[in-house]
Amino acid sequence: MAGRLKLAASxxxxxxxxxxxxxxxxxxxxxxxxxxxxxxxxxxxxxxxIVRNHGYMIYxxxxxxxxxxxxxxxxVDTYTVSPDKLTYTFTLRDGLLWxxxxxxxxxxxxxxxxxxxxxxxxxxxxxxxxDSITATDAKTFTIKLKTPTGLVLFALGKPSSNVPxxxxxxxxxxxxxxxxxxxxxSGPFVMxxxxxxxxxxxxxVKFDKYKPRAEPPSGLAGGKVVKLDRVEWLAVADQQQAANxxxxxxxxxxxxxPHDLIPLLKSDKSxxxxxxxxxxxxxxxxxxxxxxxxxxxxxxxxxxxxxxQKDFLDATIGNPDYYKVCKAIFVCGTPYASEAxxxxxxxxxxxxxxxxxxxxxxxxxxxxxxxxxxxxTLTNLGPVAKQLLEKGGFKVDMQSSxxxxxxxxxxxxxxxxxGGWNLMxxxxxxxxxxxxxxxxxxxxxxDKAAFGWPCDAExxxxxxxxxxxxxxxxQKAIVEAVQKRQREEVTHIHLGQYYVPxxxxxxxxxxxxxxxxxxxxxxxx
Length: 525
Known about the structure:
This protein is an alpha+beta fold.
């Protein structure tokens, strides 16, 4: 009891540090504990979900997916598609302003599309079809294609990392491989840069000049009506401390409560649980294709045989009500779910793993496995992986750090001795991995691929085929071909699906069902 009181008192001190001035006491302030601290604020430079969440606070998108997964205009007012499907013309809606008061123009949007598409796998693929993007005037621009693809609108409304957020041209002109330093957006909230303290909090206030769409909110689409004056994301690494603070009413919103604390939260009738992302997430292991031993496909194939999903899910989630063993790379419960090519894999066949390592000429050099220690849903992945891989014939050097350090390290193309890595583990929101073009880890375009940098012409041809195809049945056949190729190429290992509800006090309502947690439409009584 004393320990719990001490933890509560500690958080109370943190909350007290953000006390409002008397004149602002009438404001509606929502205090949230998110799944991670915000240390990087460029949602194009990284795929980290906390940065994506930050992006939805301050930026807007040309299109967005509604609750049914349908693409709807957002910053765009009207658009047309030519009969030959090669010319798309977009007109921005009236009243779009940057946080500095300047109008949003098509030049801003064009620069933003180009920067986003240089980093994002779906953007890269769609841009391979693009002949030109040109501004007709300040509110109208045109995308002309070399050959048709049905992915243009979906790409511009991609719901999760990397999201094609629109930025001012002066910001979007930043090299895609360099982080931005200007955080001007046109979204429903403004970042209070003077109050941002990594390791403590990040603060957003309502953008009073934001003009929402007239439609009701649905998913990430519709009217982004802000009903809060101020949102504070507090950095609280101790999950028990965050849960105690929620129970005590010291915070309002707990994005990802640990599954072992859900029974405690459920026992309090003042706490509400809501699964805003019903498709859940998928655990993933990523090998670095540039460095030995995983520059050899046989060593990568050994991973598929050494690992199994249930051990990871039991260690991280524990409760089968919140997880699903699923061999479908593109997520169980979706149109492209299939287990084709997955026969015999992910069943911890250690002898087969050892045999493949012998064929690969693996010399026993320890592989560096990056482990995140400060995200509850990721922490136990590393120890499970180490145990299974060692049973499968690998030697493993598990190196532990906070998630932000993992995010910074995983993009480094250097030898292990210079701070490189061999394996890392993460999780993807299902909305990011629904087909071969969306999935950042299926992208095998060499230097243009995501960290891990797989390089496989056959996989890229299959992704091109999918992008060109419009017949769902033929697309499904391509997906199955991708999975069969994945058995050989092994861009990554999928380690099962899981689900995490958000927890709030009874004062909070209006949370939307979407691929990401958003704070418009939320009310606090």
